[in-house]
Amino acid sequence: MFVVCRIIVTSAALFAVSGALADGIDPGLWRVITRTETGGVIGPPHESSKCLTAEETHDLATTFSPVAGTVNSICGPIERKLDGSRLTWRLLCQGQLDMELTGEFDFDSPHHYTATVRTKAAMAGRQMVDSQNTLEGQWVSGCQR
Question: Is residue 51 packed enough to be buried (19+ CB in 10 Å), middle (13-18) or exposed (0-12)?
Answer without folding.
Answer: middle
